[in-house]
Amino acid sequence: MKVEEMVCIMCPLGCRLIVKQEDNGEITVSGNRCPRGIEYGKQEMVEPLRILTSSVLVLNGDMPLVSVKTNKPIPRRVIMQVMDILKNTKVEAPVRVGDIIIKDVLNTGADIVATRNVERREKSSAA
């Protein structure tokens, strides 16, 4: 049997969960005060998922970076691989909130999307 203690992050209550996985794969959750805690505990035991937030380089933008995030949770085990992809990603300005920067990153089913606008940099005029 595998037993893990964790704090549920699905609502503001922050319940302390005890999650047990039997040798036959059956998972039980205790300590939750709402049904979301059961779902969270089971998911954490099987395949922890996270929303990833980061930034990518913007070419010719009025800001050098644009903030981005996954549009749905991705497996925690691939976060460092996605970060490696993002550090080598460049987008051309302008960028708009909701623009898909990377579609289906690492075949996770999640897109990397922009979370703010970055305008194109005005060319300075020579005197």
UniProtKB/TrEMBL annotation:
Pfam families: DUF1667. This is Uncharacterized protein with conserved CXXC pairs. It comes from Fervidobacterium pennivorans (strain DSM 9078 / Ven5).
